[in-house]
Every structure is written in structure tokens, then in C-alpha cells.
Amino acid sequence: MGKFVLSPKSLCIILNTLNSYPFNSIIFIDQNKTERMNKYLLSLTACALALSANAQQGKTLTEKDYERAESFLSYNTEPFIDNGGVRPNWLANDQFSYTVRTATGMQTYLVDPVKKTKTQGSGNQNGNTPARRNAGGPNEVLSPDGKKAVFIKDFNLWVKDLASGKETQLTTDGIKDYGYATDNAGWTHSDAPIVRWSPDSKKLTTFQQDQRHVKDMYLVTTNVGAPKLTAWKYPLPGDKEIATIRRVIIEIENPKVISLNIAPDQHRGTLSDDIASSGTFDDIDWKADGSEMAFVSTSRDHKNEKFRIANASTGAVREVFEETVKTQYESGQGAINWRYLPDTKEIIWYSERDDWGHLYLYDAATGKLKNQITKGSFVVTKLIRVEEKTRTLYFMASGRDAANPYFSHFYKIGFNGKGLTDLTPESGNHQITFSPSNQYFIDSYSKPDVPATTVLRNIKGELLVNLEKTDVSRLAAQGWKAPIPVALKAGDGKTDIYGLVFTPTKMETGKKYPVIDYIYPGPQGGSVGSWSFVASRGDNQALAELGFIVVVMEGTSNPNRSKSFHDMSYGNMAVNTLPDQIAAIRQLAVKYPMDTTKVGIWGHSGGGFATAAAMFRYPDFFKVGISESGNHDNRNYEDDWGERYNGLLENADYEAQANQNYAKNLKGKLMLVHGMMDDNVPPYNTLLVVEALEKANKSFDLVIFPNSAHGFGQHSPYMMRRRWDYFVKNLLGAEPPHDYQMKGPRLR
């Protein structure tokens, strides 16, 4: 008798037919027959599972499915939000007008804080809008009095009188790679000057930047004909020569350059990997009359800070005090928080010496600590205002809201550390906008799942006027829902971590969903970003609508917590938050219908680095990854970032953290993405991983944007669609619509 083969479908039909017989009434004569029947029953179960998997694998998502997902992106959700976003137009006497969208159209209100009234009206009433100053050019920095602007020309600094247009050269010895006020070291480079004007507009402080021996970075355009080579100074970790700055003070009216009598400083700041993170020369504080200038010098590895005061006439520098830390010093969380108070010869200093970011009061004459101002298990994130007459500080801080340690509140406290008062007591993340007189402020507070309430308060924190309560009812009617805040344990099993979960708006009972983990490990940022209400957070909800549960977790080593929390991955960024991501997903799977055998991960920049690390170091957990613009080997990323969070090259094992060294471990599906004109994270970071994967005979996918920078620019919608396709095909096991075209904002 000849052989014949049954298809899985035919076999299942036969087994299902057998299953319809009343086996409980059949008497089996021997054990062999019983075993054969058991095999039939087992085959029936396997068949059912196979058919289910086959049906899932054969599923096709349509263009309508993608259109529905796209409807959850910000440009399609914002038009359905009413009464949100108070943007004040300040008038005389701290009055202001603002306009909001309502369900019936746009509406403008006029608010009077003295009368505590809010009335329908229009802006610019009685011509009370504050007068605008003369505007300088795009690469000019205006003086405080608005009469002058400085700019760079031929590596030297010039000043322009805005009324007459007269230009005067301030420096004369600037040359290529040793120019004045240049902002072109590492991943930041522009033609705008980096200066800090004195309050009286008679002086400014800047530097002559020496990068004559610093290595170049190269990028090459893609075009018809000869490519264009772009080169600029880009030092790397371990380089013997990095950019240094020779600090100077310049008198404007009769140009004179005064060099400070100290050795050149490293190109470093107390807050970030740039000395102009605030758009101006960082770590500078002038005396009001321009006679003194306080500044902070930061060591190459960010472990040592020197507080100094310079005589603006002679250039003499006095050392006041210094602070040295084991890992890295930072002057705040998103803002520089030290201040020089020359009238009382005091300094407000920021330190994490007791494991939390707090303010300290120093004697500027002796350099001695007078007292700690703030203390406790919370973080001062931004010093907003120093009121010297009443000796009161006003600041933002996180960690004292019982609902979530990332929620920021507005506080005041005395210089002596007494009278700590929460001026915004409602639970939630608070955002503050001051009136021109600083006697009133607009307070907008919300949570990731609770829309904003916006009120007007006086400086005492007293509620004066209820302004707006954001209404998302029209958006909810479209099928939108908020993400779910979660509190879990980190990979160590004891540290609290927080995040958001995005589930499909329509979930099928009994179905388990593949998981997508969006990651940005920092250590200077985090996955969640803002903890205020946002209707659309990237494409997280859009991905959920395609059939996934999306997880966004703030892991250990991210900022805005204790220093020990932030330093958990210091010196080993390769594992930065990854054990926390895995632990979080496993905990969430107990409550949510997650298929933890199908976990994907994606991220951009630092998230791209973390994604590849996840796929190489935890290949049995993460099955699909999309790594965009990753700094895969921090020896190939600008010097300051790696040396700040990892330590100097001679003191840290950069080699052990490089992703290309683990590429051979890849088991799942990996897409690598990079812009070939990326001047932040050079594309060679990704090409190192590409080469390692090829050497290891590993299959992978590569998307290149030949002329795009770090964020892909006009190609971002294309990249989003490719991301959706990749997860749908490889994680969901379905077929995406062919070359779906993102349609952008829609009129409804």
C-alpha cells in the first residue's frame, strides 16, 4: 500500500471527527490501544494550538488598521482637546489675557489678579503690551539694555550698536581653532557666540577656545557628483587633547580684553556636556555693577568643582571653595542651581553630598559652609528665584508627592532652612509661570492620566482664580484613553520604579498580547519624559492599537531621584536599566494579558544603544529590537558625555560595554537605523555593530538615511511606518499593509 501525507488542516479535520465519538463509552481491550488513543487526544490539542498560531500568523493588517493607529498621534489628538494650555499675554499691572480652544471655538479671557477676576475679552487691551527691544540677528547676542549685540566674525568677537549699525571689533588675536566665544566642540557646533553680558551692559565674559590639537570628525553627503566633506572638532574619550577655554572679560565702550589669571579650563559645565546648555555662557553670575564675576570650573571627569570669583578690572581670581565627588557632580536636574549673592557675600550652592540634591549656604568671603538650607528625601530640581531682602528661596522639587516621586511641586524656604512650604499642594506634576512682578504665578498641574487644571496664585500660594480645566471628553468620544501609571520593583527586587502602560482601546477577552518596551535609559534623561498630562506620547498608543501592550519604564540610573539611584550604572552603562525593564515586564504580566514569549524593544540615541544591548545581552527575553541612532561604543561618542557618566578611559572598561563585542549573541530580529549626517552620534557607531554582525554571520536589517542628522527630520514619518511594520511582522506575526503612507493631520 502506497504512502500518503495529510496536510495539518486535513489531519485536524480527522482528529476533530474522532473527537466527536463518545470515547467514554468505548472499552479498550489492551494498554497499547489506550496509549494510541491518548496520542490522538494529544494530537488534537496540538492541532488546535497549531491552527490558532497559523491563524495569527496569517493575519493581515489593513490600511484602515494603520489609519486608526495614526489617529492616536499628537497631530490627530490635539484638535479634540478643549480648555487646555494657558499661554499668558502679560499686560500692565500683572494682568494678562489668554486664548483657549473650546468645544464651540476659540475664546479669549482677561484676568486681573488684584481683582481676582476672569472675564471674556481680548488681548492687547489699551495698548498695554510691553514694548519689544530691538532685535539682533540669528547669530547675535543682545545686551541686557537691548542696545548692543555681539557676534563672531573671522574668529573674533565684534559688537554692533543697534541704533546706528556701527560695528566695533572687540578682539584681534582670534585665529582658526583658537577663536573667541565659539560653540563648536563635540556634538554642539554653531556660529552663535557664547557670552554672558554684565547686568549694566558695559562688559561681557567669554573665552578663547583652544582646539588646535583636537581631532576632527568627518561626515560625507550623498548626492550626484562629488560628495561634500563636513569636518569639525570632535574630541573622544581618552583623547590626550580636548578643547580648553581661556577665560576673559571684555570691556565694551573702550574695547579691552582682560585675561583671568588662571590656567585654561576644560570645556566642561556643571550641568551637561556643553558650556552653553542654557543658550548662554553657563556657570557665570555677575555682580550687578559689573565689578565682579563668579564662575565655576569643572574638571574633565566632572568629579571636581572650583567656585571662583574674578575681579572684572584686573582679572585676578580668588578661589572660594571646591567640592569633589566620587562619581560625577551636577548642579541640578535640568537647571544650574548655584547663585552668587555679592551684597551679603554669600553663595547658594547645590550638592548631592547627603545623597539628595539640596541647597547649601556658603560664606563667600571665607568659603566656609554656613548651613544646609534644604534637607530630606527629595530633590531640588530648579532654583527659580532668590529674594535677598526676605532671605527666601523659591524652587521646584520632586520626591515629596506621595503619589509619585517624579511629580514636581513649587516650594519656598528661608535661607536658614526654616519655613519649607509647598505653594502648590495638589497632587500632580506642577508647571509654573511667573508674572512680570513675580508676585503672582500661573500653576498648571496634572498627571499622565489626569488632564491639567490651571489656576492663578499669589506668591504666598493662595488660590486667586480658577483659569481652566482641560476637557478631553471630545477626544475620549473618538476612542482615546489615557495610559496607565504603574509602580513596580526594579531588577534588584527592592527599589521602587515607575512607568506607564499602554493597552489597546479594544482588548479581546482571553487573548495575550505581544509586548513592546520603549526605552531611553539616560543617564541624563528617561523613558517617560514629562510626568504631566500629554494626550499622545510619541507612537506608544498607536503601537498598542496595532495589537501590542506598550511599556515605558523609568529604570534605575535615571535622574530626578537620589544620587545613589542615579549612580547605579555609573561606570557600566551597558546594563543601564535593562534588568529593571525585564523585571517590570514580568511583574506586569501578572496583571495584564502579556505574552512574555514575544517581547520587543526599541529606542533612539541612548535608547538605540540600550536596544542593541538588550538584544545581545538578553537574547532569550527580547525577541525583536529596533535600534535607532545608537551610541553603541562610547569611545566613538563625544568625550564629555562618556567621561562624565563612565569616568575617564583609563579608569573605566569602555571595551566591555561596546555593543559590537556582543553582536554574536543575537538570536532575534534586529533593525539598525542611522542618519549618515548625524553630527551628534556619528554613524560609525552603528557601522561598528553592522560589521560585527556580518563577521558573526548574523542576519539583521539596516535602514540608512543618507543625508539625515540625528533625528531623521523629514524622514521621521517613514521611520515610524517602518517601525510599525517591523513589529507587526516579526512580533505580532501578521502582515502589514504594503508601504502605508502616513497621512498627517486630518480634518474631521
General form: globular
The count of helical stretches stands at: 13
The percent range for strand residues is: 25-35%
Kindly, what is the distance between the CA atoms of the first and last residues, rounded to a whole number of angstroms? Answer: 68 Å
Tell me the helix content: 10-25%
Profile the largest sheet: 8 strands, mixed
List unreliable stretches of 5+ residues: 1-56, 123-132
User: Strand order, biggest sheet?
Assistant: 32-33-35-34-36-37-38-39
What is the radius of gyration? Answer: 30 Å
Helix and strand content put the structural class at alpha+beta
Rounded mean pLDDT is 91
Quantity of strands, as a count: 39
What can you see in these coordinates?
It contains 13 helices and 39 strands. The protein is α+β, with helices and mostly antiparallel strands and 748 residues long. The strands form nine sheets. An eight-stranded mixed sheet has the order 32-33-35-34-36-37-38-39, sandwiched between helices. Strands 9, 10, 13, 14 and 15 form a five-stranded antiparallel sheet that branches. Strands 1-2-3-4 form a four-stranded antiparallel sheet, with no helix packed on it. Helix 9 links the parallel strand 36 (594-604) and strand 37 (622-628). Mean pLDDT is 91; it is low at 1-56 and 123-132.
Give the structure's gist in a few sentences.
By secondary structure, the chain is α+β, with helices and mostly antiparallel strands. It contains 13 helices and 39 strands.
